[in-house]
Amino acid sequence: RCSYASLLHPINPSDLLFLRGDYGTRKPLPVIAGFEGSGVVVATGNNIRARLLQGRRVACGSPHSDGTWAEYLCIPANTCIPFMPDISTIQGASLIVNPLTAYALVDIARKGHRAALQTAAASSLGRMIVRLSQRLRFPMIHIVRRPEQVATLKAMGADYVLDSSTDDFDQQLTEYCQQLQATLVIDAVAGDFTGRILHAMPDGSRALVYGLLSGEPCQVDVDDLVFRRKGIDGFWLSDWITQKHSLALLHAAWQVQRLLKHDFQTAVRACFPLEDYAFALNLYEQRMSEGKVLFMPQLQRSRP
Fold first, then answer.
1. What is the pTM of this model?
2. Per-residue pLDDT, 289
3. How far apart are CA 54 and CA 67, in angstroms?
4. Quick check: is 244 in a domain?
5. CATH number at residue 144
6. What is the number of other CB atoms lying within 10 angstroms of the CB of residue 54?
7. Are 217 and 289 within one domain?
8. Domain containing 82 — which CATH number?
9. Same domain, 50 and 170
10. Does a structural domain hold residue 248?
11. Which residues in the chain show pLDDT less than 50?
């Protein structure tokens, strides 16, 4: 195991779900929140792998035990990813949840699909998927919910961007899906929106659901399931990591760090000390697409 001094910890949508009790897994109470973060290893056990991390800046995830929103953590060494020398601590703090998820989802989409879609495309994770799919020249349809978000993604070079608030959204969606033969939707919204997207897609298409932004369970037309052979699968990063061979996981972590400066760069909106948690959580939840809000334990409290 490793003990590390915390440096930075981002707030992610999964953290909000966990705090509300709506996340898919529960931890025994009392519990510290936070699924990822960065820090400096200050103490280790006698394991060789752990000792090699002494003094290193690392990213870590904590899906099963106490979370990362603390000044110090004691975690298994195999959950730590050492930073490359040119990776900034502020970018490395968000190394796991979004970048590794984006890498995994695009990798899945490219295996067996000519093209794909994604919902919540203006989010931090969504923008990473936009950039990575462009780099790999993999056709994708990106769905947002406001006109200004269409302009933002178009400025990034995205070819197919749809605003779900427009009157002709469903017609355009069907046309794009048939034109590109997009047979996988990477969905962060759930609710009836999953079924709405799936209905526009070709026969045999799949929805890969990884989020719950709507707060509602997925709803799909039975005709699509029975007669058009469509279906829904779930994606949880923790499972994907567990199923990967250690060498494959190290390769993925290396690839993700190479992309952190460009394709996987995280826009940071603000940093707060842990004591300002209520203000920080509220600020992030109001406009998630405007950038990450991070906890920085070493900051002095800025609010009474």
1. 0.87
2. 79
3. 21
4. no
5. 3.40.50.720
6. 12
7. no
8. 3.90.180.10
9. no
10. no
11. none
pLDDT score, position 301: 64
Q: Is 250 among the domain residues?
A: no
Total number of domains in the chain:
2
Are residues 87 and 184 part of one domain? no
CA proximity to 179, closest of 162, 193, 155:
162
Contact between 162 and 173 under an 8 Å Cβ cutoff? The reply is yes
Range of the domain at 20: 2-94+266-295
Q: Tokens 């590794």 — which residue?
A: 100
- Residue with the two structure tokens 């897609």: 201
Q: Give the pLDDT confidence of 222-264 residue by residue, as tens digits.
A: 999 999 999 999 999 989 988 888 788 888 989 999 999 888 9
User: Could you tell me if 89 and 211 lie in one domain?
Assistant: no
Distance CA 183, CA 221 (A): 17
